[in-house]
Design a protein that fits this description.
- With 993 residues, the protein is mainly beta.
- It folds into 10 domains: 130 residues, no CATH class; 102 residues, Immunoglobulin-like (Sandwich), CATH 2.60.40; 86 residues, Immunoglobulin-like, CATH 2.60.40; 72 residues, Immunoglobulin-like (Sandwich), CATH 2.60.40.10; 72 residues, Immunoglobulin-like, CATH 2.60.40; 72 residues, Immunoglobulin-like, CATH 2.60.40; 72 residues, Immunoglobulins (Immunoglobulin-like); 72 residues, Immunoglobulin-like (Sandwich), CATH 2.60.40.10; and more.
- The chain has 6 helices and 68 strands.
- Strand 9 and strand 10 form a beta hairpin.
- It is flat, with a radius of gyration of 64 Å.
- It holds the Pfam family Big_13.
- This is Ig-like domain (Group 3).
Length: 993
């Protein structure tokens, strides 16, 4: 049976309770909270709860509190004193107490509404008579104002009505019957297995007590599906129930609740609820069994896993032919089991079946099979008897299954190498020794284990011989013999064959020759080689198959060495450097013979790395041509020759340079002439102060050149140096000077900033010479006016715009050019303004401020003065205020106005002298509006209607403040047509003034 745990002492806003069944209801003052229910406050809500021990619990907005069983037990006895609390329990549990009762005066289907659910009055108001009648909806509650009902106050020691108070005459029976209900264990153990759920229904039983009686309604709730029945007599003074419930519904849920509803003769309803959890287990336990696939253990260990509880018995049945062995073993912690077959099995296959039953009676099964094998596998191993392969291939055969691992152990001295390899299809295996063996003998052991664990072994031996025979080969380094003799030595046995391979380009010649006594060999190349390098490879193989090799190279040379000589075509060096190239060997001697007229000079120089040579003529030559002869001899005695010629030139080229005397071009063009050859480069150096610029120009046909200065020069003088070098290295020079003048004449222009003169006078100054022409361009929109005026003595000028301008802004551009062509410019702007400024004025239409604030706007410039004239009867007040940023102004009337209308005039003058005006009117009203308020003197409406009248304008807001004790409620409502207003108190008031 559910018990209440607390009573709502007071609340503000909305407060809700969620029952243990998940039903949500709104609660009010005096409502009770039952054990297990959760109370929550909404936004702006709060609640104070009073517990059985007199303590209070207060919750603020957006808070929650869970009613516990301990608190419920403390107030359980008091709870049984109030029938209305049991009814509230029934309503919270979803009971409709009007189900089988005849309709009330409120009409069919009326369930009492919020009055019954909230612990307040249960009355039906008939609109036809407005008469209050007693409720006939099947229950009664004692609300505030009912005889015998006491409000719970903070200073009262008990939560509920004192049963010792004198009874009120003719008081109705509001006490609900107290009942209890208890569900028996489902299927006797609260555990449903697959067999029990295989039936269509399961009978759920239980007992009831208290004031329950035969025929009371029982409702079972299984996962939201309801099953109903009635209380029956179970004998021996015990009442209870027995209700078939769908097995499918029970299987889909994990708890069942039972509700008893008992109605006494006065129509009071008593309810109680019990809930019983249970377990559904229809799943057979999972079990696995693991038998060794093959084993040489005749009593193999059988293992497995299961989710059956620890201690459950697993029964194993081992079958081999006609032999059947049964053994049991317990489930261990972790859900595993393990057991040895209790008697020896024969060699061959066998099967194992495993079975386990869980506490619910569900049985799980699993099977596996294995085999006993106690015969070792056969194996052979074969290592090469002798090999020069240091990682020889080991092969063999075995009857172990394909995929079995053969372990080979190769032993050589202290070296032991182990390698694994799988058995291949056909029962063979092959593997290379994984690391190089040393030269010498070794042994191999092979081992294989079959799946049952039986091991077979075999051994073999071999030897490694990896020493190649030594050999040398000797070809002449260079020779003019086209069939040179090749010789060499070797430690291969006498009579072994040496194979020589002579390679020259695409030509490959092979010749064999025997090893002679003493380990030598010799042979001539059997066909003539061409001129050039060649290589020789020698190879000999010993009886073990090891091959020794050697190489050498030589060259055939029958050609004289190539040589070139290079004398400078023209040079101003009288001992010029002679260079050249040759393919004669480095260090060969080149002999040079220089001839100029009757002068003959001889000099020698060595060939350098890279085949070059270089030497200076050892004595000075005269200006003019000369010849050079070069000769070199290679080591074979072949001689190569070459000749060249050159000239000595000691005369510098002539050159001129021309810079503009004066220019406003900051990168002036420099020109000049020279007798240096066409294509020669002229280097120009332009110097201005610390600035030095360098540029080049090319001599063109006719002996001229031209180049622009590559960077802008500053204003002032500069110099130019020109230099050209001829082919012989002789240099000619020339210089010139010029000046840069880039300063434009200074000029100013002044147009009136604003003027109502449509042909304003434009003036200005300039440092251009007197008589220079100033050109003025006046632009206004699409209108462009041009006028010229001379510079006057003193550097001034003045001119009127020759045609009328329109109202609005305009610009003026002034330009003057000095004799050097430099142009000075200046601009200014002005405006024609013939329109007075716009202005508005705003006085409050009505105001109780006797010095009201006057505001307005204007397009007059910020800082302009607005003059305000306030007139009320014979009173005239003048005040000035500046125009603010944004074109606004504001000022308070400087002295108090009387109640009544007044006018305001505003005036502002712009900088051009144009004046704008505006007027407005307002009124001073200092009399408060009349208002009345009418609240019902007494009313049973907890949200009474408040009305009243006022002479305030329609739409004015009336603010009502309703105060009851510590409760203060504020509500607003508009004034209606006719000067009335009406509004309901927005939240329920308590009983009292």
């Amino acid at each position: 049976m559910s018990d209440f745990a607390a009573v709502i002492k007071s609340l503000v806003g909305q407060v809700f309770v969620v029952s243990v069944d998940g039903l949500r209801r709104q609660v009010f003052e005096g409502d009770r909270i039952f054990a297990g229910e959760q109370i929550t406050t909404a936004n702006g809500g709060s609640v104070t709860l009073e517990l059985a021990n007199g303590e209070t619990v207060s919750l603020g907005a957006n808070s929650s509190w869970q009613a516990g069983n301990a608190q419920a037990q403390e107030i359980a006895d008091s709870a049984n004193q109030s029938g209305s609390s049991e009814l509230e329990q029934a309503l919270a549990a979803g009971l409709d107490p009007t189900t089988d009762l005849e309709p009330t005066a409120a009409g069919p289907g009326s369930a009492g509404g919020a009055g019954g659910a909230g612990g307040g009055h249960s009355a039906v108001m008939l609109t036809e008579t407005a008469q209050r009648v007693d409720p006939t909806i099947g229950f009664q509650t004692a609300g505030p104002g009912t005889p015998g009902f006491n409000l719970i106050e903070d200073n009262e020691p008990a939560l509920f009505t004192d049963s010792t108070l004198p009874a009120t005459p003719n008081a109705p029976d509001n006490t609900a019957p107290v009942v209890t209900i208890s569900i028996d264990p489902i299927t006797g153990d609260d555990l449903l297995n697959s067999a029990e759920l295989g039936a269509a229904t399961v009978v759920v039983t239980g007992t009831v007590g208290g004031e329950a009686k035969v025929g009371d309604s029982i409702t079972l709730n299984v996962g939201g599906t309801l099953f109903t029945g009635s209380v029956v007599d179970l004998g021996n003074g015990v009442l209870g129930f027995s209700i078939p419930v769908s097995a499918a519904n029970l299987g889909a849920a994990s708890a069942i609740s039972a509700t008893i509803s008992s109605v006494d003769e006065a129509g009071n309803v008593g309810t109680a609820v019990d809930e019983r959890p249970y377990t559904v287990d229809v799943t057979a336990p999972i079990i696995t069994v693991d038998v060794p696939a093959v084993s040489n253990d005749t009593t193999p260990t059988i293992t497995g896993t299961t989710d059956a509880p620890v201690g459950s018995v697993v029964t194993l049945t081992i079958t081999q032919g006609n032999t059947v062995i049964t053994v049991s073993t317990p489930v261990l912690a972790g859900g595993t089991y393990t057991v040895d077959v209790p008697q020896a099995l024969a060699e061959g296959p066998y099967t194992v079946g495993a079975q386990v039953t869980d506490p619910a009676g569900n049985t799980g099964n699993a099977t596996d099979s294995g085999a006993i094998d106690i015969t070792a596998p056969a194996i052979t191993v074969d290592a090469p008897a002798v090999s020069n392969d240091t990682t020889p291939t080991i092969t063999g055969t075995t009857d172990a299954p394909v995929g079995s691992t053969v372990t080979l152990t190769i032993t050589q001295g202290n070296t032991v190498i182990t390698v694994n390899t799988p058995v291949l299809a056909g029962g063979t295996y092959t593997v290379d020794v994984p690391q190089a063996l040393a030269e010498g003998p070794y042994t191999v052991g092979a081992q294989v284990t079959d799946p049952a664990g039986n091991t077979g072994n075999a051994t073999d031996s071999g030897a490694i011989d990896i020493t190649a025979p030594a050999i040398t080969v000797d070809a002449p380094a260079v020779s003019n013999d086209t069939t040179p003799t090749i010789t060499g030595t070797t430690d291969a046995p006498v009579g072994s064959t040496v194979t020589l391979t002579i390679t020259q380009g695409n030509t490959v010649i092979t010749v064999n020759t025997p090893v002679l006594a003493g380990g030598t060999y010799t042979v001539d190349v059997p066909q003539a080689l061409a001129e050039g390098p060649y290589t020789v490879g020698a190879q000999v193989t010993d009886p073990a198959g090891n091959t020794g090799s050697a190489t050498d190279s030589g060259a055939i040379d029958t050609t004289a060495p190539a040589i070139t000589v290079d004398a400078p075509a023209v040079s101003n060096d009288t001992t010029p450097t002679i260079t050249g190239t040759t393919d004669a060997p480095v260090g060969s001697t080149v002999t040079l013979t220089i001839t100029q007229g009757n002068t003959v000079i001889t000099v020698s120089t060595p060939v350098l790395a890279g085949g070059t040579y270089t030497v200076d003529v050892p004595q000075a030559l005269a200006e003019g041509p000369y010849t050079v002869g070069a000769q070199v001899t290679d080591p074979a005695g072949n001689t190569g020759n070459a000749t060249d010629s050159g000239a000595i030139d000691l005369t510098a080229p002539a050159i001129t340079v021309d810079a503009p005397a004066v220019s406003n071009d900051t990168t002036p063009t420099i020109t000049g002439t020279t007798d240096a050859p066409v294509g020669s480069t002229v280097t120009l150096t332009i110097t201005q102060g610390t600035t030095v610029l360098t540029t080049t120009a090319t001599v063109v046909a006719g002996g001229t050149y031209s180049a622009d200065v590559p960077a802008a020069l500053a204003e002032g003088a500069y110099s130019v140096g020109a230099q050209v070098t001829d082919l012989a290295g002789n240099t000619g020079n020339a210089t010139d000077s010029g000046a840069i003048d880039t300063t434009a004449p200074a000029i100013t222009v002044a147009a009136p900033a604003v003027s109502n003169d449509t042909t304003p006078t434009i003036t200005g100054t300039t440092d251009a010479p007197v008589g220079s022409t100033v050109t003025l361009t006046i632009t206004q929109g699409n209108t462009v006016i041009t006028v010229n005026t001379p510079v006057l003595a003193g550097g001034t000028y003045t001119v009127d715009v020759p045609q009328a301008l329109a109202e609005g802004p305009y610009t003026v551009g002034a330009q003057v050019t000095d004799p050097a062509g430099n142009t000075g410019n200046a601009t200014d702007s002005g405006a024609i303004d013939t329109t007075p400024p716009a202005i508005t004025v705003d006085a409050p239409s009505v105001n109780n401020d006797t010095t009201p604030t006057i505001t307005g706007t204007t397009d007059a410039p910020v800082g302009s003065v607005v003059t305000l004239t306030i007139t009320q009867g014979n009173t005239v007040i003048t005040v000035i205020t500046p125009v603010l940023a944004g074109g606004t102004y504001t000022v308070d009337v400087p002295q108090a106005l009387a109640e009544g209308p007044y006018t305001v005039g505003a005036q502002v003058t712009d900088p051009a002298g144009n004046t704008g005006s505006a007027t407005d009117s307002g009124a001073i009203d200092t009399t408060a509006p009349a208002i009345t308020v009418d609240a019902p003197a007494v009313s049973n409406d907890t949200t009474p209607t408040i009305t009243g009248t006022t002479d305030a304008p329609v739409g004015s807001v009336v603010t009502l403040t309703i105060t009851q004790g510590n409760t203060v409620i504020t509500v607003t409502t508009p004034v209606l047509a006719g000067g009335t207003y009406t509004v309901d108190v927005p939240q329920a008031l308590g009983e009292g003034p």
